[in-house]
Known about the structure:
heterodimer; A: mainly alpha; 3 helices; B: alpha+beta; 5 helices
Amino acid sequence: LPVAPEEAEDEGKNLQLVESYLQNFYNLQKDHQHHLRNKGKNPLAAKLKEMQAFFGLEVTGKPDLETLEIMKKPRCAIPDIGQ
Amino acid sequence: YVFTPGNPKWKRNNLTYRILNYTPKMRQADVDEAIRKALSVWSNVTPLTFRKVEDKEADIMISFAYRDHQDNSPFDGPNGQLAHAFQPGEGIGGDVHLDEEETWTKDGRGYNLFIVIAHELGHSLGLSHSNDPGALMYPTYSYTDPNEFLLPQDDIDGIQAIYGQSNAAVQPTGPVTPQACDPNLTFDAITTLRGEKIFFKGRYMLRKHPARTEAELNFISLLWPKLPSGIQAAYENVERDEVLLFKEDKYWVLRGYDIAPGYPKPIYHLGFPKTVKRVNAAYSDETTGKTYFFIADRYWRYDENKKSMDHGYPKKIVSKFGKTGRVDAAFQKDGYVYFFRGTTQFQFDPRTKRIVRKMKSISWFNC
């Protein structure tokens, strides 16, 4: 089915939430040339897996509901991995 | 628990702290008290001491800051990131910065300043984030009544691994986060709630939803900030869509998922004599409208329709329920009553008045 505009918007918001969360707390590099990324490697999914493992979630590498729920919780600004 | 990479620590135990500014959202005396109490959380379990200084550089400088405050880690406005702190070291090392745009309080509203500062001081002393959901050093915020706060064992282990034990004759210990499949797990109270089962343990509850294999561990305060930890008995009145929760000589009522106003009330309103000081366990039989309260080796029976205790009680538990004896927790499901005593669970059939099965207390968690 074509994705309804509001769903597309939600998806965009969620992706933005995931990226900034992983940049803030899991040392995801701010890489602005997504399209130049070499094939096969997906640092975002790898970092997402790190976050899911830390919080004892199912390690899928995908921003599922439980993962997004935790990312929306108020928290300490110190990274979870490394300083 | 996790040490900060590089294992930074203070080279001496007698540290100084200074409060650089105050938030207008709290009385200054309350901020001072929250910080003093947060420091004592760590000094109580280590040889560390903290002395307040007013007008010179201190090891730990505590301040409220707004957005970009020149430390390369700008805050993000209300909610989200609440505060940060720097690992032990000179200059900015050890300092704590709190996001001025948060709603800082001394209670359960907004963000409790004591809880957040106690967490940040863990970083100031060399700890990183723990992935124990019950630890103070867990990254996400969760409220605990400061008067009930006990530093969890995970955090005690972490900070003592850096600075050693306290000088106290008896080493303080802290609450351990329950693991659903720990065979030694026991429960304070258990109730059904709209088809779910809620297992109470200390300040935690394990929620078991019939459609989910895993039990979900939460702080009681996550759903009910006004409920104390250490709930001792609980039961659901399905017909009225209510759950009654007991601790010492008081009880609360949940209507649906919300604490009903006007509670807690004394348990004596239900008809208990003043000699009863607490309830060990309770369950309500939906078919008869009778609720059973277990206290030591006796039980009372309460009529939910008449809203009064039946006459001729208390009676000995063994007289009706066989050798279950003392009961920690109980609930009814599909006509059977499940009694919990320590790590053992008894399935009781009220029709035949017999225990039909004996299981481990954690049998509901698909371990």
